Amino acid sequence: VVVAASVCGALVMLRRRRFVWASVPLALAVVTREQAVLSVAALALGASVVGWRAGGVRRSGKHLVEVAVVPAVVFAAWQLVAAHSVGRWPALASTDEHAGVPFASMPSAVWRWARQAVGHEWRRFAFVLVVAMLVLVVAAVVSGGAVELWKEQPAEALLGVYAFLVFGAFYGRVDDPAYFRQAFELAIVSWLALFVARGRWLVHAARVVVPVSIVTIAARA
Fold it and tell me: Among 22, 28, 153, 206, which is disulfide-ready with 10 (CB 3.0 to 4.6 Å)?
């Protein structure tokens, strides 16, 4: 929850073009959970795109540094303190294989979820939500909403792309939705990005997908 709030706070600052202030909640995010470093990278790249459009290479580099340096320094310092205290780097401590190549195993995983949708509860819900996600993403692209989002808010668009890759890597590799907690703030941001992106087909799809998703999640809970 802290990481999700931090990333959303950084997005608010980026929308207001306050790039230095965006680095403050991101610094909190990276000391809360190491994987948030990748969210910082996506947002910093988005800020760099904004700078490039406004003033070329120099402005692009300036915005990149403003967003990324503070979280990077705080993250490195915290890793040093933790490593000194416990004898190993926290970011390198996990020995579990949580992720893999994005979407490499997704077709076989979704096929298993579909075949076991009747007898296996969580796979039934996972299958419904995967279909819902794909419908929304396709609708956003077809209706031009994704392109419009890239033009107006590149940081949000890049974070959405990163979320899609993380989704494919975690779910396809371990076949267990529990591992998506490693980057769940991306799910929150991606929903927000989809609703910001406008487009006729996206609106029509959302009218069906959102109620289905709410019912599915509520039933699973």
Answer: 22
